[in-house]
Amino acid sequence: MRISSRLREVLRKAKKVCVLTGAGISAESGVPTFRGGGGTAVWKGMPFDQISSAKMVRENLDEVWAWFDYRRDVLKDCKPNLAHKILANWQDKFEDFTLITQNIDNLHKEAGSRKVLELHGNIHRSYCIKCNKRFFMTKDTIPHQPEFCDECGSKVRPDVVLFGEFLPFDVYEKAEQKSRQAELFFIIGTSAVVYPAAGLAELAKLNGAFLVEINPEETPMTEICDESFRAKSSEALSAINQVI
Ligand code: OAD
Ligand code: ZN
Known about the structure:
By secondary structure, the protein is α/β, with parallel strands linked by helices.
């Protein structure tokens, strides 16, 4: 895979580097994506944006948990892939490196990334719907635990951002700040249709970042990218990693 002289130069000079990842980076670990490849995730005949919604938490939290426990069961045997590992190494290669993810699968952390801005939460965390107490689960706690809060007895829900909900403010604010400052911004394995996450790439570009996309398919972001790799994330990142 050819790396342009333009990108080589940016890689050599850039101190502030941001990476935004989506489901595609975990595809090679065996984690199904939501879109792409011609398919859309469906749970018991329901589109995923219907089951993963704030409305469904209010109306049928047990079913929401059934979907998330199913996904946690799929994740149980999934390991970080080469792309996750390369990005974990980049935290020590660039002076100011920020990893932002839309994924909730925890694979960046499992690969060794110390700081990850998780815009959509984490599938191994939950919180009480009444008092907000947070709970942490190990990867193999399936089904989820606890079911009820040990402080107030209310039900516990997944600590993930669902359709109709806001992103965690502190995490988003930090991601926005880092995106604005970035000299080099990678957008990897995301269909770039879910906002405000996708908007971070636009924000970076508007503020002068060199924008690089890695995705086997075109996305709405392709047009504004300085370079696009039509490749799997592990292949493109291996090639780029060789010239750093
Ligand atoms: P999508 O499923 O929408 O998009 C996955 C993207 O990965 C597609 O553009 C694929 O072409 C690409 N892809 C597939 N295999 C790849 C590979 N090996 N390497 C690189 N790219 C590959 O996933 P996201 O964009 O992450 O939100 O979806 C955004 C959000 O929509 C998710 O965070 C989730 C969902 O609703 C919430 O749950 C809040
Ligand atoms: Zn509680």
